Amino acid sequence: MSPGRASAEPAEPPGGRERGPDRQGPDRQVLIALAALGMLAFNFPLLAVWDTEATVFGLPLLPVALFAIWGALIAALALASERRGTGAAAPLLPAEPDEH
Question: For 17-41, what is the mean pLDDT?
């Protein structure tokens, strides 16, 4: 193709695939919110709340709280990833045509 001719195909957006209602995966805002929540939850002022002499089933409270917070963040990300909006994504395989 010569440098002076324009391409017949539309240019792909800078982010990769086109983003629209049928795209899969969590929204960018949800991911940012979960990252911010994780940063807050694993930061000093909130972790100091769990640093006591209390135990849970014989285990110190701080490690139990760390793993519980970590698991909750993973579960929230899994829920956000599986959730879809009103427009469901297209199936991976096209439907087979009806034979008459």
Answer: 78
